[in-house]
Design a protein that fits this description.
The chain has 653 residues and is of the alpha+beta class. The chain is built from 20 helices and 23 strands. The structure holds ligand TTJ. The site of ligand TTJ has 15 residues, from α3, β2 and β6.
Length: 653
């Protein structure tokens, strides 16, 4: 190489350097002009963001396995020091710029990706490489590199080189220290760092990066701050994070489930534990950044969780064939889970750029989690059973809530504007005066209609056995025509909408035949009232009509025998007291249909003459037991009860 050539080359190099320096200044000037573009804002948030841009570099060095400890300090003057024990930023002269690599790190606006060769596989930081941005927005910044037995130091001001990189001493440590003071001209709202805010994120970083030792120290000692220091170090990593989140909760099993795997250069970690809560806490991170809006990693996890639990529950027959699969929401009830992935090229999307967009991550997370979690379930049957039980319970609650919502929606169908066609309403609408007779069978219904006092008595005929509400789903109950008519007529609404104050009648009279069938229908109705109209029962609105058991007819006169324990004796008395001619005829009323409309009025409906038994709920527990006898699966006690009570309405429930 000739001397001339050498000269030219050097001149070329110098030009290149000048050109790149101009670019540098333009770059950093741009940062100072529009800081919001680089750190989001110049408010409190932006100020703290500076710390993370620096700390992220040290985290990368720990992820690469070369640093174990990071110390962060708020200095008395509100400047920040971050120091790690990594390899130290390279200090050698780069061929391209003829400047030390470390200088480039702090003075060239990096578009993203790491400087030099051999960058990091995975890197945190929302904005890629932000050290030059921090430098641009700092009044002063100093970097110390401990490397090769030397301490290298360089100082900057407003992002511009103040002193060239120089060796200022010797050391046997290795690592990097950065000390910066945010420029008060840029951060005109505040330059005061909040210890709590820094500590919270630093703790999170410690959870997310198992084994990392990271400290935070407040060195300020003034009217607003007192010195303090914390060290965060979790050998359990994500497991410790889950335990921390569940600290005050009741957990379903002791140790959080932990799963980790790697595929195509992407690592995925999940730690999870169930609590007795109904809420779930599922947090996801990509490259240590909290993905508030979720994304593909969370999606993959959720899909896998639901599928694996359902598959397991089916295989183990914990879910029966006729039962629906547990939904995603069901299997997440009470779940605390952390999903953390590390990706060489994360794509952040969404409103706040906190949603992971990399499409391949969904399948990878799904696969890694599915395999390991499936294995876990097989190996830990006790825990698995608890997980499935929790999900099953959630499903049941969800289905019940859905029914309740549907009921609310169907409300209009039960409004009094749609009074049932079968109802023969009364003309008064003063509920304290009106009565609703529920009459077994259409023919008795007909007699009751023509026999009643239409001013205050309404008739609703019902046909045959009504639905046993004890054994029917709520959908079925609401679909039942007889029950719908009854609720519509009463006007109280149903389920969550139920309102006793809307009752259109303050007497609801059950009028059934005095036989076993009649008793059965009566108990079915009482069950319905007990379960779905309890306030009406409690209000004392429910009555049972007492049609006569016998009629003793002599000529045109009829004497009736009302039900009661001594009914047979009374019948004998009446019969023996009558003259022999014309011959008295004793009639036994088996059904209401055996009386004509006038008889029904006289004996059973006329307030002047009738007997009615009022149904009251003395105590709910007792009533419950009776209904269980009546409606449960045990046939014998039911038969006994019905037979004993068929004739007498001794219904002090
Ligand atoms: C880069 O690859 C070669 C060996 O050194 C690697 C490196 O730069 N490591 C490194 C950078 N460790 N710590 C940093 C760092 C620390 C702080 C506090 C601030 C910045 C900008 C970088």
């Amino acid at each position: 190489m000739t001397k001339k050539h050498n000269q030219e080359e050097l001149q070329e190099k110098a030009k290149e350097y000048d050109a790149s320096q101009i670019q540098v200044l333009e770059g950093l000037e741009a940062v100072r002009k529009r800081p919001g573009m680089y750190i989001g804002s110049t408010s409190n948030e932006g100020l703290h963001h500076l710390v993370w841009e620096i700390v992220d570099n040290s985290i990368d060095e720990t992820l690469a396995g070369f640093a174990t400890t990071i110390d962060v300090a708020i200095e008395p003057d509100n400047s920040i020091t971050v120091v790690d024990d990594g390899r130290g930023i390279p200090v050698d002269i780069q061929a391209k710029t003829s400047r030390p690599a470390v200088e480039t790190v702090f003075t060239v606006l990096h578009a993203g990706g790491k400087f030099g060769g051999g960058g990091y596989k995975v890197s945190g930081g929302l904005h890629g490489v932000g050290s030059s941005v921090v430098n641009a927005l700092s009044l002063n910044l100093e970097v110390n590199v401990y490397k090769n037995g030397n301490i290298y130091a360089q100082k900057y001001q407003h992002g511009r080189v103040l002193t060239d990189l120089e060796i200022t001493g010797t050391t046997n440590r290795h690592g990097t220290l950065v000390h910066f003071l945010p420029d008060p001209e840029i951060f005109n709202e505040t330059t005061a760092f909040e210890y709590k805010k820094l500590a919270r994120r630093i703790q999170e970083l410690a959870f997310l990066n198992r084994g990392l030792k990271i400290t935070i120290e407040d060195k300020r000692d003034d009217e607003n701050h007192s010195p303090q220091k914390e060290e965060f170090h979790y050998e359990g990593g994500l497991r410790s994070y889950v335990e921390f989140l569940n600290e005050k909760k009741q957990v379903l099993f002791d140790d959080p489930i932990y799963i980790e795997g790697e595929m195509n250069g992407i690592t995925a970690e999940v730690a999870m534990q169930y609590t007795t809560d109904y809420q779930n806490t599922v947090l996801s991170f990509a490259n240590n950044i909290f993905t508030h809006e979720g994304g593909t990693h969370e999606q993959g996890f959720r899909t896998a969780l639901t599928r694996v639990i359902n598959d397991y529950a089916r295989k183990q027959k914990l879910l029966k064939e006729n039962e629906d699969n547990l939904s995603g929401e069901d299997v997440r009830e009470g779940l605390t889970a952390i999903i953390s992935i590390k990706h060489p090229n994360p794509q952040f999307e969404g409103q706040t750029k906190t949603k992971l967009g990399n499409s391949e991550v969904s399948a990878i997370t799904n696969r890694l989690f599915s395999e390991a979690f499936h294995k876990f379930l097989l190996e830990n049957p006790k825990v698995s059973k608890k997980i499935v039980e929790k999900g099953t319970l959630a499903a049941k609650a969800r289905q019940a809530a859905k029914r309740a919502r549907e009921m609310t929606r169907k409300k209009s169908g039960l409004e009094i504007s749609n009074l049932p066609g079968k109802l023969a309403d009364c003309s008064s609408n003063d509920p304290t005066q009106t009565e609703l007779f529920i009459v077994e069978g259409d023919s008795a219904g007909g007699s009751a209609k023509s026999g009643r006092n239409r001013e205050f008595q309404a008739i609703l005929p019902i046909r045959g056995k009504i639905l046993n509400v004890e054994k029917a789903s709520m959908e079925k109950i609401l679909a039942n025509e007889e029950i719908r008519s009854l609720f519509t007529a009463m006007g109280t609404g149903f389920g969550a909408e139920f309102d006793v104050s809307k009752a259109r009648y303050h007497k609801l009279v059950i009028m059934t035949d005095a036989d076993v069938d009649g008793a059965h229908i009566r108990t079915l109705l009482l069950t319905l009232f007990y379960r779905y109209m309890l306030p009406v029962v409690k209000a004392g609105y429910i009555y049972i009509a007492q049609p006569p058991l016998y009629g003793v007819k002599q000529g045109k006169n009829i004497t009736y025998v009302q039900p009661g324990p001594d009914a047979e004796d009374r019948l004998q008395d009446i019969a023996s007291n009558l003259a022999k001619t014309p011959k008295p005829i004793i009639q036994r009323y088996k059904g209401l249909g055996e009386m004509d409309d006038h008889q029904l009025w006289e004996t059973t409906m006329d307030p002047e003459n009738r007997l009615m038994a009022r149904v009251s709920v003395k105590d709910a527990a007792e009533a419950n037991a009776i209904f269980e006898i009546l409606m449960g699966d045990n046939v014998e006690p039911r038969r006994e009860f019905i037979e004993e009570n068929a004739r007498y309405a001794t219904l002090d429930l």
